# Entry
Amino acid sequence: MTTGLQIQRAEVLGAEGLVKKYGNRTVVEDVSFQIRSGETYGLLGPNGAGKTTIISMVAGLIPADAGSIRIAGEVMAPSSIRARRHFGLVPQELAIYPDLTAKENLRFFGKLQGMGGQELKLRTAEVLELIGLADRAGEQTKKFSGGMKRRLNIGIGLLHRPTLLILDEPTVGVDPQSRNSILESVEVLATEGMAVLYTTHYMEEAERLCNRIAIIDVGRIQAEGTRNELVELTGGVDRIDLRGSGDVASASAALRLLPGVQKVDAGSSGIILTVHNGPGLLAPIVERAGSAGMALTAVEIVRPDLESVFLHLTGKALRD
Amino acid sequence: MKSLAGIALVEVRRFLRDRSNIFFVFIFPLLLILLLGSQFGANSGQARVGLAGDGGSGLAKALVQQLQADGLEVATAGEATVRDQLSRGRIDVGIFLADADAADFSAGRPARIEAVAASQSSAQAVLQEVRGSVQAVSTEQRQRKLLEGAGIGAAEADAVLEQASESVKRPTMELVDTNDVTQEFRGLGKFDLGAVQQLLLFVFLSSLTGAATLIKARRLGVIARVMAAPVASWQAVGGQALGRFGIAAVQGVYIMAGTALLFGVEWGNPVLAGVILAVFCAVSAAAAMVIGSVLDNDAAASGVGVGLGLVLAGLGGSMVPPEFFSGALQQVSLLTPHRWAYDAFAEVQRHGGTLTDILPQLGVLAAMAAALLVLGSFLLRRSLGRAL
# Structure
């Protein structure tokens, strides 16, 4: 049992000291991370942060100027064939032939993965079912909606049952329904033991899917850890917004004296508090504000998120 | 190798599935060959004679028989039609027989035959052949009358004359045109020249414009995905090259087979013609790889493909035969693959050339293909980095 657990949690991807330069411009600098089986690892950063370049190096599409990559124990390099058998790539673009049918696309890429015969036939049918395109298998993909193309794009990456699935911004330009379907699929894959490398600039996706997240900016990993570990970096403070009328000034003064309140900003229509443990302090805050003569109309606790972490680490918003 | 063939097959399948290709790749070339051949095609080197007058007269029958025996193509028609065909250059010589002259000939009296030569240079040579035929008919008529005058019956006279013609063979006369160009095209069928020219033009043009699909595949990330699969990079690039070769070959074989079946085009030794086509397709495919790798915009690639394809075809003799080029233009045309392929086809098609005869042309074409393929592969790999 113990041995089985160790095998299941074996390192699938190890990247050490990756560097990529274009001329004098360094686009990826000293990037290291590891992913274990069953783990979903997120690269979170704005557009142009270097996420796709990292993925391109991991997939062996471009050589790293320095550093090393191992996939399932195999060294990855642009000339390495064996390492490529272990991963499935889902590029950001819809990397499918528009003039081939969904089935033909799957069969073509399956053959490139060395599959064939009955195995390919059965697995193609299985994947078509999985991505919900079984009834459209014989249609040319140029007739598909954006969401259907995205699902096929992912299906191709899954076809050969890779140890590692690399997803590069798979939900860009997708409607909310398809987006949710894609995220659910990734969650299922992770529970089945597949390691997933997931890049995104959507904070919510990283929070929902990833066991560990690396925050990337200007080609460097700024911080790495679980969602909670990253949030701790901001100091773990919450924000409480109080809205209402009455004696706001007296309420501000009274709240300043409450233990756990770090900062009080009073405005014409309310008060913004910076506190430790917002949910725990909510009741005394409401009581004290009321006692001081403020009639509350709305109260909101804003907990720190990855957006706050990114802002804290880089001094700019994730969507900048 | 399975991966390489798989990539190539997908490219060919996509090409065949694109409905916009049906007209421009399969129908248009044959229409053009038909049109050009009908209007400007060579006359097979066979002299064409039109005969106007009473076809049932003895003179007309004797003339038609003799002209055909001498290897001329004879068609009888009304006077207006024959004059029209003469003016359009569709026949070389028109013969006009009046009823009175036909009657005089039958009666053994002097008869006048009007012959008009067309304006093309070959017509004068044909006129000489017609004169020879008329002379033969006249001689035979004199001999027949002489025999009949000596009291031999008509049937017996014919038998004697036939016996005489079998025992004494007439000398054959070969008329050689001093014009080199005319000599070069002698023996070609009506559609033969145009078929070669349009084959080279369209195979190259379609390949270049087809480079747009390579750009689309690159932009879509399909090629990156192929490169990320457990496939050697040479196989991925080679598959693309082989796919483009397959597309060119499909069109080339279609044009060759189609023109042979529909228009009776003689391609010469089919194996050698196939070898020339294969090497030319390799050049076309490699050139498409270069275009598809250098440019990032598929619309621009189509435009460049059409422009470059037409210019090279023009310079290479696929619009006007290079035999009509000036000395300087002849030299320039040797920079194009079309010219080398044209010369190789000419050698096989017109002169019954062997593999040894076309080795220089094949060698140059193979060198062009190799150089472009190396360049195209290098550029394709570099363009992938640009696309990521």
The interface with chain B takes residues 52-53, 56, 59-62, 78-79, 81-82, 84-85, 87, 89, 91-100, 108-109, 111-114, 156 of chain A (CB under 8 Å). The radius of gyration of chain A is 24 Å. The domain at 3-232 of chain A is CATH 3.40.50.300 (Rossmann fold). Confidence is low (pLDDT under 50) at residues 1-7 of chain A.
